[in-house]
Amino acid sequence: MADRIMIALDNVSKIYGSGQHAITALKDVNLHVPQGDIHGVIGLSGAGKSTLIRCVNLLERPTTGHVSVDDQELTALDRATLNRARHGIGMIFQHFNLLTSRTVFDNVALPLELMRMDKNTIRERVQPLLDLTGLADKADSYPAELSGGQKQRVAIARALASRPKVLLCDEATSALDPQTTSSILGLLEDINRRLGLTILLITHEMEVVKSICHRVSLISDGELVEEAEVGDFFTSPRTHLARRFINDFLEIEPPQSLLDHLQNDPTPGSHPVLRLAYSGDEISTPLISRLARACDIDISILEAKVESIRHRTLGLMIAELVGPPEKTREALAYLEDHDLTVEVLGHVRRHD
Ligand SMILES: Nc1ncnc2c1ncn2[C@@H]1O[C@H](COP(=O)(O)OP(=O)(O)OP(=O)(O)O)[C@@H](O)[C@H]1O
């Protein structure tokens, strides 16, 4: 059976302003998130991430296109019905958006008060959420007395109060340090598993995508340019922009001393410098030593990194092939035959 789609954006475009000052923030976006998935949207600053996520609960109304959540087309609803439908969609933000004059308990209770629930029902709902988010001993504290991570936990509890089926996370960990980020991501993953909540998050950090997302979309200039399962995205990116994100994340760049000597074209006595990416099974193969033997060349590894991503392995390496031109050409063909992603960065002359 096909997965049930929980969030559907169909041909969504968003233009801010009009005439000469019009800014197209989203261009014909199609995004379908199945129930229970954690889906990430990653992109550079200004790419349209916030606009996209705000279009899901119609905090921004798309200029054209349709938005459905849980099989209800939000773009077709009148205001009162839309307000009710929004109870099924929780949202958390980068800067938490808590009410400073209310205690933790009262912040979490707020959406339920707005839904006119009675005090007992509110207490029955809020207490387990404080337990779930690790805030049981903070019920009477005020936001000013909390750390950033604790504030985001309050925001998560508040977002869950109306028992939504979907949680939208707008750069939810961008204001947090790495350790707190990982504890909040752990909480989101836990909620996803325990409650079966569908999560759509936007981020500019690959770490977030790597840690908890199942699938990821890449947004560039308002367009979704790539969508993939997270393991595939890291191991076989299809666009130049995705490769840039991955390289920046893995921080694998040739040393500056090498870059200074890198030439575009081979010259007599120069050797190719490669960036190799390998994934999945190849890692268990002693490919580099086989290559050296099969092609009778030396391989000088300048940088290497191995990452484990959603049960898959991704290896990146910058290496110089040292040998006569016909042998290094043979080695390049060998590598490509073995399904490695090979990029020739340039050529360098050795001085030894
Ligand atoms: N309310 C608005 N009015 C006019 N233009 C806007 C508005 N909100 C966003 N934009 C523009 O739309 C484009 C997309 O912005 P958006 O905030 O969605 O991107 P983003 O990827 O979330 O960026 P960041 O990561 O910097 O927050 C940008 O060019 C931005 O200047």
What does this entry look like structurally?
The protein is of the alpha/beta class and about 350 residues long. The protein folds into two domains: about 5-245, 3-Layer(aba) Sandwich (Rossmann fold), CATH 3.40.50; about 250-350, ACT domain (Alpha-Beta Plaits). Helix content is about 35%, strand content about 30%. The chain contains twelve helices and 14 strands. Strands 6-7-8-3-9-10 form a six-stranded mixed β-sheet, with helices on both faces. Strands 2-1-4-5 form a four-stranded antiparallel β-sheet, with helices on one face. Strand 4 and strand 5 (about 70-75) form a beta hairpin. The longest helix has 18 residues, at about 180-195. Adenosine-5'-triphosphate (ATP) binds next to strand 2 and helix 1. Its main location: membrane. Keywords: Amino-acid transport, ATP-binding, Cell membrane, Membrane, Nucleotide-binding, Translocase, Transport. It is found in: Cell inner membrane. It holds the Pfam family ABC_tran. It comes from Aidingimonas halophila.
